[in-house]
Amino acid sequence: MTGPDIKLALERELRDLLAERGTGPGLLSLSLSITSLDAVEWLAVQALFPKVYWQGRGESQLYAGVGAALSLNGTQAGDELWADLAQFREEYPNAVLFGGLRFDPQRLPDAEWRDFGDGAFFLPSFLLVQDDADTRLQCHIVVPPNSSEASLLASLGTTCDGLRFDLPPRTPRPAAVSISSDEPDRSRFVQSVTTLTDLIAAGDVEKVVLARRMDVRFAGPVDPYRFVRHFKAMRSPAYFFCLQFTSATAFVGSSPERLYKRTGRHVCSEALAGTRRRGSTPAEDAEWKTSLERSPKDRHEHRLVHDHISVALAALCENFTAEEEPTVLQLVLVQHLLSQMSGTLGEGHDDTELLRALHPTPAVGGLPVQPALKLIRDLEPFDRGWYAAPLGRISRDEVDLTVAIRSGLLHGNTLSLYCGAGIVADSDPDEEWAETESKFANFLHVIEAE
Fold this sequence. Notes:
The protein is of the alpha+beta class.
């Protein structure tokens, strides 16, 4: 179907729906089956904001949305946003919203993160939902009081005219000029790791995740959806996402880590901690895997995360189970220890409690949580923004949130990359630096792919 065909079909469906329900206030949802297209490329050429790309880990179904029929903003600290979301989901049970939260709302945002705020979720005006069998275009319309059929049709037509369904050839990517900054640099990172191991030895904390930021500067503007396309081509078991509230910035990533997924009242989560790089040969790869499985340091780091999440979920869930022995999750360039857990959310408990109990997990924050967060504020010379924070899709009956690691913020001609390392009692500063280098390699590999 061409753009004009889609516009006519949506207008026809809107007329039929208005004839059935009238023009009273509310949320209208239209849906069309359309010719299959490349959702990533389609999203890249749209000029309507906000924009979102989302694909769950290991799932064939993907979402590509533009515009905001409705948006919710708030602060994580006061739970206002989550309360608004709960009310919205009850009122509109079939609507799917996309968005996320800041890692630490108590830290003032750096300038490059101001478009994102403390937290935001939105219902796209137009949403492509695609799987192996079908491509559907959903259109969501908020009907204000005193609307007429003519005004609603005119508004839909104007918005449809702004959509593009002709996908032009890709343009060359500007070359990466240089890595313009690395915060903290190696000497400061080593010093911070030493400070943390001293505090851990003194019993002040058990674990702190120390992050780095690397800025890569390009010769010109960069399309963030190029990174999505290359992440998908790597076929790692990961969440693929790109979120833009304005044309000025884009938060994009390929995260292997789930915060939690709730389907009905069934909840699943996981502990993902402990890292080794992949080998260049099968024999070397097996050696690194065995090294990870047998490492006392990595197993201890993993156990801290496992036990914290298990205790938090067990307090909210019935029939709770957790894997006691971790398996190894192998990505393209690194591998991690992984333990999965699940349960049935108890009566009287909700997503607000799940979020409050789980974020930030010790895999990205530390233990105890509040002392670790204070040390992160003191030691990291940058704002994490939405890095390592909850991000995903929510509806009344399902919530799927990733921990937004292996991610970067594109602002202007600069891509800021983020990664972290879990510091525990026997952490070696040089080994922790090498671990972060391996994690950066995931994104740097994509940058070098064209």
